Amino acid sequence: MPISQNLVHEFIKILGRENVFTEEAERQSYSYDGAVLNPVVPALVAAPDRQEDLGRTVRLAYENGLPITVRGSGTNLSGATIPEQGDGIVILTNRLNKILEINEEDLYAVVEPGVITARFAAAVAARGLFYPPDPGSQSVSTLGGNVARNAGGLRGLKYGVTKDYIMGMDIFDYRGELVKTGSRTVKCVTGYNLAGLMSCSEGTLGVFSTIIIKLVPPPRASRAMLALYSDARRASETVAGIIAAHIVPCTLEFMDNKTVKYVEADTRAGLPVEAAAVLLIEVDGGHEQMVEEDAAKVIAVCRKCGCTDVRVAKNAEEKARIWEARRGALPALARARPSIVLEDATVPRSRFPDMVTAVDDIALKHKLDVATFGHAGDGNLHPSILCDRRDKEEFARVEAAVDEIFDAALKFQGTLSGEHGIGMAKAKWMEKETNRATVEFSKNLRRALDPRMLFNAGKKYV
Ligand SMILES: Cc1cc2nc3c(=O)[nH]c(=O)nc-3n(C[C@H](O)[C@H](O)[C@H](O)COP(=O)(O)OP(=O)(O)OC[C@H]3O[C@@H](n4cnc5c(N)ncnc54)[C@H](O)[C@@H]3O)c2cc1C
């Protein structure tokens, strides 16, 4: 449904003509994201480039009853930025992309929400500091999107995820009023932990306009290695073995044989295509000797658990090749077939071997091509179903398999999503993981902060 010309002019008055997209061809680019779902073209797209304009845009949209979809780079994989219907506005944050402060003394930074994650990490690294969360999409994703999804990454096991680095933020509420939470101090208990509430909020509670981010000193030494297995279950058992030996690698990733083959075909990184599975492991710390000792302990656990070989990266170039291969997993798999349904089931670490086996069984049962990789150290699996959405019969099998993957994760006391969020794609499973009372409680909270339920309608709790 089109928005009245008068209202369009109101937005243009606030934002300038160049920051309001009205043409269908322009709006189409904001009708989809990383999920395998039908696109919905928004009626209007607004791209404020000043914080005060972001607030005024939210106010004008809300007062006029427009459904609001806030969008960073649209890399989410669950339909969180697909408008529910074509009668609303997409508010883009990617022109709010200033790094406002990097404070080397007090170890924090202040950013606008549209700053690209990798650009931020590089800017703080240039000042001798470290921002650990590194989602696979970091070269494109925004920090606002990372916060709203509580994005994880390869370093989650030791360094935590996005929420562990949020010290505070400013948020525009539904009236376009600026709400402040947290501070630049290490400790702050003066108000509700609204920043905590905003992490995982998926654009349903308000719009972040600035974020205060914790920084840490970088590790001084690291060792990366690749452990090869002729039996995938042994690889997954190694994960529990490493943790049980009280070593916390910064990264502990799993790739099954299918993933290795697709990645190798795509990247020619020298991955062992004969291996049933590989673990990609990195240990780091403040001293060479300590890291050496941890690496030796990890290698011993890998051997005890039956790995066939461990290849330790001899230099920075070999290390970079290991991680490029891992980061190439999703793009390589996405190129294999017309569609990829990438799931995110997560289980307690000790159940990781059971979950890997369950996914293999489900793939076999439904005759589907499923490649599995993921953040093994976090119990976070990405079973990736390679398919063609246009093939109705095949896609019905995909949907049945996804249901069973979630059932298995819940049976192992896991969760629907470790890092990709709920969006539109998984909203219908929310009650299954929790209960009716939890869904109602969350909806009441949402109604209190968004009385007309216009923020990201049709997502998360429906
Ligand atoms: C190749 C690839 C690899 C990926 N790897 C990972 C990974 O390793 N770990 C991981 O966690 N995810 C991963 N993802 C998923 C995705 O990149 C992350 O969820 C990321 O945080 C999304 O950032 P974005 O800027 O694209 O946000 P968008 O997709 O634009 O939005 C995500 C959510 O944030 C909300 N939002 C955005 N900006 C704001 C704001 N200013 N205020 C309020 N709400 C806002 C949106 O409404 C939406 O609900 C991957 C995706 C791809 C395509």
Tags for this model:
462 residues; alpha+beta; Uridine Diphospho-n-acetylenolpyruvylglucosamine Reductase, domain 2; Alpha-Beta Plaits; 5 domains; seven-stranded antiparallel β-sheet; five-stranded antiparallel β-sheet; 19% strand; binds flavin-adenine dinucleotide
Q: What is the total domain count?
A: 5
The helix tally amounts to: 16
Low-confidence stretches: none
Main sheet characteristics: 7 strands, antiparallel
Bound small molecules, by name, code or SMILES, are: flavin-adenine dinucleotide
Adjacency order of strands in the biggest sheet: 13-10-12-11-15-16-14
Task: State the CATH topology of the largest domain.
Answer: Uridine Diphospho-n-acetylenolpyruvylglucosamine Reductase, domain 3
Describe this structure in words.
This protein has 462 residues and is an alpha+beta fold. The chain has 5 domains: 5-92, Uridine Diphospho-n-acetylenolpyruvylglucosamine Reductase, domain 2 (2-Layer Sandwich); 99-214, Uridine Diphospho-n-acetylenolpyruvylglucosamine Reductase, domain 3; 221-330, Alpha-Beta Plaits, CATH 3.30.70; 334-411, 2-Layer Sandwich (Alpha-Beta Plaits); 426-462. Helices cover 36% and strands 19% of the residues. The protein has 16 helices and 16 strands. The chain has a 7-stranded antiparallel beta sheet with strand order 13-10-12-11-15-16-14, sandwiched between helices. Strands 5-6-9-7-8 form a 5-stranded antiparallel beta sheet. Strand 7 and strand 8 form a beta hairpin. Helix 1 runs antiparallel to helix 3, helix 8 (232-244) packs across helix 10 and helix 13 (352-365) packs antiparallel against helix 14 (392-411). Bound molecules: flavin-adenine dinucleotide. Flavin-adenine dinucleotide binds at residues 33-34, 70-77, 80-81, 93, 113, 135-137, 141-142, 144-146, 148-149, 151-153, 202-203, 207-208, 330, 419-420, 456.
